[in-house]
Amino acid sequence: MNDIPETFGSAVFNDEKMRERLPKEIYESLKKTAESGARLEASIADVVAEKMKEWACEMGATHYTHWFQPMTNITAEKHDSFITPVKGSDRIIMEFRGKELSYGEPDASSLPNGGLRATFEARGYTAWDPSSYAFVKDGTLFIPSVFISYSGEALDKKTPLLRSVQALGKQVSRILALFHNASGTTATPTVGAEQEYFLIDKEVYLKRPDLVTCGRTLFGAPPAKGQELHDHYFGAIKPRVKAFMADLDRELWKLGVLAKTKHNEAAPSQHELAPLFTGANVATDHNQLTMSVMRTIAEKHGLVCLLHEKPFKGVNGSGKHNNWSLLSDTGVNLLAPGETPSENAQFLLFLTAIIKAVDDHQDLLRMSVATASNDHRLGANEAPPAIISVSLGEELTDLLSALEKNATYHGKEKVQIEIGADILPKIPKDTTDRNRTSPFAFTGNKFEFRMPGSSLSVSGPNIVLNTIVAEALDDFATKLEHSENFSADLNKLIRETIVLHKRIIFNGDGYSKSWEEEAEKRGLLNLKTTADALPCFIKEKSRKLFEKYGVFTEAEIYSRYQILLESYSTTVDIEALTIADMVKRNILPAAEAYENELCDIILKKRDILGEESVRTEKTVLERTSSLAENLTGLLGDLEKKVAYSKGLTGLPQAIYCKEEILPTMAEIREVIDSLERIVDAAFWRFPTYNDLLYSVN
Ligand code: ADP
Ligand code: MG
Hints:
Number of domains: 4
Number of strands: 21
Distance between the termini: 29 Å
Largest sheet: 9 strands, mixed
Bound molecules: adenosine-5'-diphosphate, magnesium ion
Structural class: alpha+beta
């Protein structure tokens, strides 16, 4: 017998506990607030805070924290204890007031704000998001919160996500009102974020300053065995990893995270965890929690969890597939082909709206996953290309094509389809999921956005998805709401949308060179790096979109743009300084020591055995010293370039990093990797790829 059903959610102040512990009218009122997104009344907040504290103390909590998501990809917290002195005595009580539950003022002046808090008054504050449950972790009550400035600007990743969920819900309601079927009156986006990660031994990890500082190796010759044998993917899980996974599941279940699937991934030491999907807001919180718990549990097992997109060159990188759909208030998945003509017409409307949205805003979707670390993954041959396209599977594509041409659909049965009058031919789910190379794939009843990187908060991609789909639905609703002949107009709209946007549909091999050429012919964007992708954020088209749906103000867009640029350039600069340091203090000295050793050997051997006997040593010596010399030169270049980059800001700095620093780092890497292959292991001071990738047994 196990106790998982009892354990699940045991550390969460969830609906069941609120219902149990809160007076009925308080519970009802809190629920309404959570659903409407309105402010919580002070009198209600006081009662909720008291009951929440009681429960948290029973769970062993001594502290509370507002838990928020600043403009980094991790979460922030500041712990305060519940203790309050009792007046006129030496005693304390555990106290938690409504005010403390509702608002916090973290001293967050060091968090990125892109100039939004430039003035001294514009300090940020946090506010409880009652639509995501509070929970107890490591003796602290965590209160999921938004983080905003006093003038109301979002300083975080949760606020705009909540706004985008609302904007989308509004437009879905208008569409559902056109159909009068059983699909409900509104919907929320649902998200299931599959998380990939690497696990390596902590002792080996600590010997690599590049991993410790940058999360990825900046050099390392390929191991004799990479993933060529395909023996890791879905392979048997090693005992130490199994123990980690078991602990991880247990901890996540306690926190109410629906951890479901775990398996080995393609690269050695790479694994994946997939949860069951939930609403976009909670799914984002849960993914943050998952990443953080992964790190802590790994430590307990003497391991380190690497969430970087590309810790090792030459083997698969890590992504975070963002599965996305729309769930109606009556529990209907709006992206599942339906059973009746009306439901099917509605399905096709949502499907084509999404196709239109993705085509219209390819650049924003690309931008939403653009980071210095993800650039090493996208466009490499194991990850989706930097080109956005939609794969629908053959059947659905044929169906759309038949609709477009008003022709007969040659599926299993030959049929002519009149949208709204006919039932769609059944599209078997498994035929939509064959293409693993597509960045945005329809997988039967949801879309899977495969471009987000493993360390990214899924907030960004979902903000963009929600907003662009809201816009497409808005456009459709406006066209159909006053229609005199709904069925005819709907058919026309769907047909026109297919004609206008079919260029984005691609079911072929997204990793192939020919697709890049074909995509260019189709006029699709290919924004290869973060420096290329970010500027679209501040284009007038994007600003209008986000402002129209109340997701970002203009000031918020500019500040975020600055933060993203800065984060890119800073990441590259830090990597450059790290490699420079490793080269100077370890790699060149190792090469020199080896050269000295070779000289000694040559001198001794030559005396006894003659010139001919030291031919090999001499060749190695020459090669080593020539590589070391080359490396010294490149190091000088790199240091100059980093110094120059530090004098730049914004886009010019990002472009400089991309065009000057990264290529020099790549050159340096090649030289180091060549050195690693010839320098005697006794002199090489860093663990190799073999040591790192096979460190866990
Ligand atoms: P697949 O076989 O296509 O990978 P799975 O059923 O294994 O699909 O699901 C993969 C991920 O997609 C899981 O995290 C799952 O929860 C999520 N998912 C499934 N259905 C939905 C949905 N309607 N909305 C959002 N995510 C979903
Ligand atoms: Mg997947």
